[in-house]
Amino acid sequence: MGDRIVVVEDVWGAALSDLARTHEVRRHPDAWIDPDMLRDAVSEATAVVVRNRAQVTEELLSAAPDLKIVARAGVGLDNIDVAAADRAGVVVSAALGANAVSVAEHTLLLALGVLREVVAHDRDVRAGGWERRAGVELSGKTWGLLGLGATGLAVANLLRGFGMRIIGHDPYVDPKDPRLGRVEAVGLDEVLARADVLSVHLPATAETKNLLDAALLGRMKPGAVLVNVGRGEVVDEAGLAAALRSGHLAGAGLDVRGTEPPGPSPLDEVGSVIYTPHIAGITVDSQERIVARLVDDIRAVLSGADARCSVGKLAGVRRGAA
């Protein structure tokens, strides 16, 4: 059997179309919905392409004996058991940083949307109203970054033209790292207390789950705005709703939720919240970059070379390799 690349979510891009000219590429964009359907789809695959919904478990990996690489069209790895892939000798590739600019732009969109009440004004005008409420400027304020990886630093880069002070917290980043540029690295308590806008750029881990609970949200600067483009599990939604209803926080822009798609939430009744459906990193531009990188890695691994964007501990070790 020749190499078979199976795409199990809605992933597209010019590089995938080019790959289909030289390899067998099968598309099952809805296979992620049902575990049995997903197992059947990948059973003969040598490469699998996922986004963030297909659950790549140890069981799924064992159902694909010829699998050599799982290519993640994005950066988060919540849906992939990387340790199980390591044990199976399956490379996991993720285009880390490829969508950082897209996420950063969306972060600013959410913050500005909350501060200028864009959604509420739009609804009001459509209903025949013309209420002109004053918004809040970013200029002269302090922006706090929770997480100083690629997306956090991309936000800092975009903020250079806004005349803001930029502070950030990340326990895994050296405060003297030259890549921080004009970002002032501070402790968690300080970033909470000083930030007029706090944007979250954290993955979902045991350490970050419900990190921003009612207690920490209560330590944020009164009147601040929270933007979450990291992972929904980081923010306690009940605590956030309480902080917004009390007026302690002015608003929130949420691209990610604890459960996706979300069920009913206490946030639904709070007018100062803007939702988007986990699209911060999804732009035409970012998807082309991401797909180009993952296709390069698929070609490399299937030809016996190493993946450039491997995130597993067994980088360069492939099933069947010596």
From TrEMBL:
CDD domains referenced in this protein's UniProt entry, alphabetically: PGDH_4
InterPro entries: D-2-hydroxyacid_DH (IPR050857), D-isomer_2_OHA_DH_cat_dom (IPR006139), D-isomer_DH_CS (IPR029753), D-isomer_DH_NAD-bd (IPR006140), NAD(P)-bd_dom_sf (IPR036291)
Domain D-isomer specific 2-hydroxyacid dehydrogenase NAD-binding: 110-280
D-isomer specific 2-hydroxyacid dehydrogenase catalytic domain segment(s): 23-307
EC number: 1.1.1.310, 1.1.1.95
Pfam families: 2-Hacid_dh, 2-Hacid_dh_C
Signal peptide residues on this chain, from the entry's feature table: none
An annotated Gene Ontology molecular function: NAD binding
Keyword Lipid metabolism: no
Keywords: NAD, Oxidoreductase
Enzyme class: oxidoreductase
Family as reported in the entry's similarity comment: Belongs to the D-isomer specific 2-hydroxyacid dehydrogenase family.
Name assigned to this protein: D-3-phosphoglycerate dehydrogenase/(S)-sulfolactate dehydrogenase
